[in-house]
Description:
alpha+beta, 7 helices, D-amino Acid Aminotransferase, Chain A, domain 1, single chain, 2 domains, 28% helix, D-amino Acid Aminotransferase, Chain A, domain 2, 9-stranded mixed beta sheet, 29% strand, 5-stranded antiparallel beta sheet
Amino acid sequence: MIYTSENFQPQNRAFLFGDAVKVYFFIRNSQLIMAEECYFFLMASMRKMRMNIPLSYTLEYFQELFGKEVISKGMQNGIIHFLVYRNSADQSLQNQAKRILTEGKKSSVSFWFEAVEKEDVLSLQHPVEMDLMKEIGVNTNLLSNIRVHCPENIYAEIYAQENDLDDVILLNPNKRIARSIYGNLMFLEGKTIKVPKQTEGAYISPLMENLITYIHRNNLAEIEPSEMIAFESQKAEEILMISDEKGIFPVSKIRNKNFENQRFSEMIEKWKTGF
Length: 275
């Protein structure tokens, strides 16, 4: 299920230059859940990419849009992949900068989204096998925490396919754990859940933040934002990969170590009852 704004042009800056940001909205039981968190993350992502935010881009606008174009057409459970990009008649940033100076205004934006059906976005998906990849790393700058064009992800995805892996752990320039290709990682050891800090290159994730908030409020475990060396992945008892793009996956194996998923599974079952 695909939808575009009225002024969509096939030759656009997202296609030509990767000048776009992507966020995800979640549908569960024919309801838009975590809509406010996802909306504010969209606004923050657009500001980081210095995009002009139209006055019409309100929370109510997106709730109505997704209700009309997705939920009313029969989708009960799924993830909306929402991409917003900068418009420009010019095909270079230099020409665009000159136009902005002469016209005194920013470029307008357009959007595209695709709704992908899922059984339940809050349920554990199939177990995944991962490995560390040290050939390339991810950065830790302002744009590392949002979904923008990332050649490192493309390279890592091909690497994973060639090595029969579902995902890989990506390190930052300091050789510490940042995230995976598709999302963030949570490491359970004893009564503590370690999560790589956003300053380490982890994504901002409304889905993970909601789960972490629930775990903290209900004293299910201690949450510890951490700077983690690669070896610490082998010390964990359970590992969870949370992807706003794909869903929630227990990690079953990294190299020669196998992991359980019982405690994370119990936490998620309790979390689901709150929706």
